[in-house]
Amino acid sequence: MKNYFEDMMPAEELAQVKYIPTIPEFITWIESKWRELPALSDTVNTLTYKQMCDAIARKRAMLNAMGLAKGDKVAILDNTTVEAVEMFLAVTSAGYVVINLPSQLPAPAVAGCCMKFGVKVLAAGAGFMETAKAASCKVIDIADMAEQKAPVAIVDKNDPAAIFFTGGTTGAPKGAVLPHRALMRGALNGVYAPGHQLGCQRYASVLPLSHVFGLVRGTLSVLYEGGAWYAAANTKETISKLPMIKPTCLVAVPGICEILLGLVKMYGKPFLGGNLRFIIAGAANVPPKLIGEFDQLGISLFAGYGMTEGANLTSGNIDVKEKPTSVGKIYPGQETKVVDGELWFRGDNVFLGYYGDPEKTAETLTPDGWIKTGDLVRFDEEGYMYIIGRIKNLIILSNGENVSPESIEEPFYKCDKLRDCLVKEDEMDGKKVIAIEILPRIEEFGNTPWEEVEAYFKKLVDEVNATLPTTHRINKITVRKEDFKRTGAMKVSRN
């Protein structure tokens, strides 16, 4: 075996894939490599790679005519659209830095972000022009382009390419600055998957481009492998058009996977289009229950691990049936080490730092290039990685011992009737205790009285407690009727 990931692909395809360190070089390569294949589609009109690259070149010419300097910031405010992908690639291949703003931001927040990051131009979709007016910078229609084309810029792989917001499940959002090399290493890692990948996959894009997972694995990796990328007006509409799109692959968060399962139960497997082979799931815990349910449909649900600061793809797992709780093995091109239980890694995929925040940067990025992830991990004897918890989430017991809430949550996710849970520190009778909030899969209980649902999970907590040290046991239980507060990636928020 040469490499866990490289062995997934046929040798003739692996020989065609190489690491391309900058987006300008990438644009040139895919235009030559995939020229006449379908590239981007709004489900009505479809552009070939040649047509897409022509549009990108004309958008570059428009940006250049504005007198922007290398490294200037250009923000994008739109849904997940063909025009947004074109603009992202135009900005970065022209030597400027792009910021994809979350589409749900209100006008004051858009204005604040543009001011904070020194945005010179804001490209807005048709439905966002009114919101964009709040910004003090120049506002343009994202569909606009020049008559003529402009060549790609010459950039260094270490030049900044994009800024992504990151905050995880706790803390205030920060702007992670990703260079060209990081985006392109993440994109290449996303190409590795079982079987044939090049020029034959159809993706329905259901994640926002403002999320690094949606941008890197859900878009750049698709173009890297010559795939066809489809998106409708928004996530809900894209999902509704799955029978028409007939995707072979989806890139999604577990929350969307839950929604898809519910729709399959309502409308049958054909709702997914009939060609879906696998789903790449990330950005949150992937319960074994989900993996098993998709497997029964003949669809592989692959898990992985990544963080915005590492261009999202750090590890991946295709052996989910054998290792359902693992986030897989480390992708190529990275060094890793475990320091006091915490995962550290470095390589081409590492970010440059947090925009305008040297103190936070120094907390995360060492002078010699290691990212201190804040994630507690372990590796098994075969090299598969498991996330044990987050350093910031540790509960400090009265005896001074640290307890990872995620390690206590893990056995609960083996329960088919549990959707999500959250272990935290709480108070009971004036004393600090370990508590758990549980969100049931209420459809699994049918018409069962609520008191019996609560009793079911009380018994489950008792069973898990019996396996834990006395100091780690759960003393307070809440069974929720309403969903948890969630982050943009649909993770349970720990705030």
Question: Any descriptors?
Answer:
about 500 residues; alpha/beta; Rossmann fold; GMP Synthetase, Chain A, domain 3; 9-stranded mixed sheet; 7-stranded mixed sheet; 15 helices; globular
How would you characterize the overall build of this protein?
The mean pLDDT is 91. The longest helix is centred in the N-terminal third of the chain and has 16 residues. The protein has a nine-stranded mixed sheet, sandwiched between helices. It is globular and about 70 Å long. The protein has 15 helices and 25 strands. It is an alpha/beta fold and 495 residues long.
Describe, in short, the structure shown.
Helices cover 29% and strands 25% of the residues.
List the helices and strands and how they pair.
Elements: H1 11-14, H2 23-33, E1 38-41, E2 46-48, H3 49-64, E3 73-77, H4 82-93, E4 97-101, H5 107-116, E5 119-124, H6 129-132, E6 138-141, E7 160-166, E8 174-179, H7 180-191, E9 202-205, H8 212-224, E10 228-230, H9 235-240, H10 242-245, E11 249-252, H11 254-267, E12 278-281, H12 288-296, E13 300-305, E14 315-317, E15 329-330, E16 334-339, E17 342-347, E18 353-354, H13 358-364, E19 371-379, E20 385-390, E21 395-396, E22 402-403, H14 405-409, E23 418-428, E24 431-440, H15 450-465, E25 476-479
